[in-house]
């Protein structure tokens, strides 16, 4: 006889609290808990004292962090898990706290998703429309540097010698900076909103000792003259442009590349079948929430758009991180 097993509500209940772990990590960063643990404040009482918190508040937060595996517990002592030390300890070269903080600040707006789905466009402010002055990205694009730096270095190792590069929507300039470090003769044109160039890109170029080889072109990259170059970087740009604007941009990029030049596209890549990769679909929702036409493209779609723009050869480069990088050759 067949026994009917009732569906278990546990998975659904996890969704009810699904946003809480991210907020707990954000709270730990804001309160300086990871830094305090690294300094040796390794019990709940010591952490409460070091971070200026009540034990009544520190206890559930610390046990939540331990339960999530971000703190390791031995008796009543806690220490940082290896990935917490690398990615969440302020001052670490791989620090990702800025990404956590950025997403946490947007949580309230995410509750408007039903409206976005109903109308097929963002319920509130569009972050990359023509009216955007760069304030949205100036506030958080620096935190993407650490996320993309290992992949950018892998790309730099794979590229042939070049004299000129254009970094479109450069943000921190992570992709071109890796190449500029690897190729000391390279000159770079960095394109982004004025505020991003002044408060983020310039700072990183100076920090990496490359500023004298950088030229900055402020404005909307849909209009800015891209000139001629051997390499063009589109680092996480196409997804927010959407299909029509991406096709236009790819054509301009192709026509501006010197013969034999290469376009580097770093992107989330939608899986086939589409539902198989959850993160790229979460990011697609992110695009729905914040951009007019943004979407995550599949590898086939990206190659097809590149071919239409005139690119003739494509290579997918495996890099550290979840998605490969597309090299499109003119
Ligand atoms: C997702 S970030 C990517 C930054 C960097 N390329 C990276 O991979 O880390 C997008 C960047 O493009 C810039 N951007 C977006 N739309 C733009 C536009 N129409 N004109 C100029 N810059 C734009 C933003 O200001 C931001 O710095």
Write the layout of secondary structure elements.
Elements: H1 10-16, H2 20-31, H3 33-38, H4 44-51, H5 55-67, E1 71-74, E2 77-80, H6 82-87, H7 97-105, H8 107-110, H9 113-119, H10 135-138, H11 143-158, E3 164-168, H12 174-182, E4 187-192, H13 194-207, E5 214-218, E6 229-235, H14 238-256, E7 257-266, H15 278-290, H16 299-309, E8 313-317, E9 325-329
Parallel strand pairs: 3-4, 3-6, 4-5, 6-7
Antiparallel strand pairs: 1-2, 7-9, 8-9
Helix pairs in contact: 2-5, 2-7, 4-5, 11-12, 14-16
The structure holds S-adenosylmethionine.
Describe this structure in words.
With 330 residues, this protein is an alpha/beta fold. It has 2 domains: 10-105, Arc Repressor Mutant, subunit A (Orthogonal Bundle), CATH 1.10.10.10; 135-329, Rossmann fold, CATH 3.40.50. Helices cover 48% and strands 15% of the residues. It contains 16 helices and 9 strands. It has helices at 10-16, 20-31, 33-38, 44-51, 55-67, 82-87, 97-105, 107-110, 113-119, 135-138, 143-158, 174-182, 194-207, 238-256, 278-290, 299-309; strands at residues 71-74, 77-80, 164-168, 187-192, 214-218, 229-235, 257-266, 313-317, 325-329. Strands 5-4-3-6-7-9-8 form a 7-stranded mixed sheet, sandwiched between helices. It has a two-stranded antiparallel sheet with strand order 1-2. Strand 6 (229-235), helix 14 (238-256) and strand 7 form a beta-alpha-beta unit. Helix 2 (20-31) packs across helix 5 and helix 11 packs across helix 12 (174-182). The mean pLDDT is 95. The structure holds S-adenosylmethionine. S-adenosylmethionine binds at residues 128, 134, 137, 141, 144, 148, 169-172, 174, 192-193, 196, 220-222, 235-237, 266. Residues 128, 134, 137, 141, 144, 148, 169-172, 174, 192-193, 196, 220-222, 235-237, 266 line the site of S-adenosylmethionine.
């Amino acid at each position: 006889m067949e026994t009917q097993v009732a569906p278990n509500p546990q998975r659904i209940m996890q969704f009810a609290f699904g946003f809480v772990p991210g907020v707990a990590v954000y709270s730990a960063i804001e309160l300086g808990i990871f830094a305090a643990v690294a300094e040796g404040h390794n019990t709940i009482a010591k952490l409460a004292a070091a971070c200026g918190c009540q034990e009544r508040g520190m206890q559930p937060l610390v046990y939540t962090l331990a339960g999530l595996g971000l703190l390791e517990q031995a008796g009543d002592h806690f220490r940082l898990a290896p990935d917490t030390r690398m990615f969440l300890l302020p001052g670490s070269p791989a620090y990702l706290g800025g990404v956590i903080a950025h997403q946490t600040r947007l949580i309230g707006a995410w509750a408007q998703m039903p409206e976005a789905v109903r109308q097929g466009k963002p319920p509130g402010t569009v972050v990359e429309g023509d009216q955007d002055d760069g304030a949205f990205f100036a506030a958080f694009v620096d935190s993407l540097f650490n996320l993309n730096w290992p992949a950018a270095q892998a790309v730099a190792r794979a590229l042939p010698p070049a004299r000129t590069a254009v970094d479109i929507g450069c943000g921190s300039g992570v992709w071109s900076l890796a190449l500029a470090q690897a190729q000391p003769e390279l000159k770079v044109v960095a394109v982004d909103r004025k505020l991003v160039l002044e408060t983020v890109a310039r700072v990183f170029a100076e920090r990496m000792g490359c500023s004298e080889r950088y030229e900055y072109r402020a404005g909307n990259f849909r209009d800015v003259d891209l000139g001629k170059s051997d390499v063009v970087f589109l680092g996480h740009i196409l997804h927010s442009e959407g299909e029509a604007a991406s096709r236009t941009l790819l054509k301009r990029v192709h026509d501006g590349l010197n013969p034999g030049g290469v376009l580097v596209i770093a992107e989330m890549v939608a899986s086939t079948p589409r539902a198989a990769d959850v993160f790229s679909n979460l990011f697609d929702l992110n695009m729905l929430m914040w951009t007019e036409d943004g979407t995550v493209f599949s590898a086939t779609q990206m190659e097809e758009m590149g071919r239409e723009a005139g690119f003739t050869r494509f290579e997918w480069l495996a890099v550290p991180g979840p998605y490969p990088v597309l090299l499109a050759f003119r």
